[in-house]
Design goal:
Number of strands: 0
Helix content: 40-55%
InterPro entries: DUF983
Radius of gyration: 19 Å
Structural class: mainly alpha
Largest sheet: none
Shape: elongated
Keywords: Membrane, Transmembrane, Transmembrane helix
Order of helices and strands: HHHH
Length: 133
């Protein structure tokens, strides 16, 4: 295994492409190198990348990922709930069970990915501690 820290280290003049950073964050990888894990566990952010040593401890994701998750899940599931109810008129308990499981499952899938994408966004824009010194 080779040490990537010398070839991946960025300088003040480097470009930080937004799309690449968002995609790497979505994959829960370091927005700088794309190889190291961004998260250690479900939502806990690593202090730094194990590959390129990029620091993450100063990120400010806060409530953003939860807000985006609620926004996306609500905008997907509410119209779907209406369509299913109007089209097939299932039993209320069946409808509740299917959509409760769907909402929880989709939320659990999206939350860490949106947190990674938000940290990737902050890194690409140089926000907070990710600023170019």
């Amino acid at each position: 295994m080779t040490d990537h820290s010398t070839e991946i280290a960025h300088t003040d003049t480097d470009e930080r492409p937004m799309a690449r950073s968002l995609l790497r964050g979505w994959r829960r990888k370091c927005p700088n190198c794309g190889a190291g894990p961004l998260l250690k566990g479900y939502l806990k952010v690593n202090d730094s990348c194990t590959v390129c040593r990029e620091e993450f401890f100063h990120h400010r994701a806060d409530d953003g990922p939860a807000y985006l998750t609620i926004l996306i899940v609500g905008h997907l599931m509410a119209p779907m709930l209406h369509v299913v109810f109007a089209t097939w008129r299932p039993e209320p308990l069946t409808l509740f069970t299917i959509f409760a499981v769907g909402c929880v499952g989709l939320s659990l899938y999206l939350l860490p990915r949106l947190k990674g994408a938000l940290i990737g966004f902050q890194w690409a824009k140089g926000m907070g501690g990710f600023g170019r010194e």
